[in-house]
Specification:
8 helices, alpha+beta, three-stranded antiparallel beta sheet, 44% helix, three-stranded mixed beta sheet, 10 strands
Length: 181
């Protein structure tokens, strides 16, 4: 093992987080179990692990049910041009319309991410080459960009290297938050 890898592990653990090293199938099973539990966690995965989780979770039926559509090329271009976050690869997102008629989609999601976490952090996530991120049951509050109203409808997304998986079982905390109970 490269000693610099241990220094990175030491830094993460020193920050109060855990690091797990295991075969892909074990890591994927841990992500699935976390999603099904309704508990929130962020996983930094290999591309192969990310692909396996997405193949399990983002079935065509689920994508259709949640209204996920491919993010249009012009919207991807706006994310890059207007927000300075290099948007590349495949991207899917649902679109939410607030009561005042404003729309929340991929561009607005990235814009809100920049507002909450900063441009450099957002760019860093978009710039990951070997690592992909899965947010299990995230607690993101969608905020309308036009009127700043908090929207009850959840935003679902999966991009080339960043995505969410939400437990939609009617008894889960995520389903409750999504108003499905």
């Amino acid at each position: 093992m490269d000693p610099s890898s241990l220094a990175a592990v030491e830094s993460v653990v020193g920050g109060g987080r855990a690091v797990i090293a295991a075969d892909d199938s074990i890591v994927v099973d841990i992500v699935k179990a976390t999603v099904r539990s309704g508990r929130t966690a962020t996983f930094y995965l290999t591309r192969a692990q990310f692909s396996a989780v997405n193949a399990w979770y983002w079935t065509p039926q689920r994508m259709s049910h949640l209204g996920l559509e491919p993010v249009a090329e012009h919207e991807m271009a706006r994310i890059t041009a207007e927000l300075g976050a290099e948007a590349c690869g495949s991207a899917y997102s649902n679109r939410i319309t607030c009561p005042d008629g404003h729309t929340y989609g991929a561009l607005e999601f990235v814009r809100q991410g920049i507002e909450e976490h900063g441009l450099e952090a957002t760019r860093a996530v978009f710039g990951l080459k070997d690592t992909a991120v899965i947010r299990a049951n995230p607690h993101q509050q969608v905020v309308c960009p036009g009127c700043r109203r908090r929207l009850a409808t959840p935003h679902y997304y999966v991009y080339w290297g960043y995505g969410c998986c939400v437990d939609l079982d009617d008894t889960s905390p995520a389903a409750f938050a999504a108003g499905r109970r």
